[in-house]
Design goal:
4 strands, four-stranded mixed β-sheet, alpha+beta, about 90 residues, Conserved hypothetical protein from pyrococcus furiosus pfu- 392566-001, ParB domain
Length: about 90
């Protein structure tokens, strides 16, 4: 079994791409509120091209936070959005 190190890095919102359409509903709004209050607990998992492989709902909530509570967005993500790369 090969061990791999997961490197945490930060990306700006405009560099990330959703892999599927996630509708904005009450659960996404609740997640947005939680992220605004507590931050992102688990980083997004992205492919080499910065397409989100795991965390589409979190990214949708972050996008909504960016547009509707920009101050909270910049408070939680001063360096960018935390991500780890999926190597397949």
């Amino acid at each position: 079994m090969k061990k791999t190190a997961l490197n945490l890095f930060y990306l700006q919102l405009e560099n990330l791409t959703l892999t599927k359409d996630v509708r904005l509903d009450e659960t996404i709004k609740a997640l947005e509120h939680d992220i605004a209050e507590h931050g992102l607990i688990e980083p997004l998992v992205v492919r080499r091209s910065f397409v989100v492989d795991s965390g589409n709902r979190r990214l949708r909530a972050i996008i909504h936070l960016y547009y509707y509570d920009n101050e909270a967005y910049h408070k939680q993500f001063p360096k960018g959005i935390p991500c780890i790369e999926l190597n397949l």
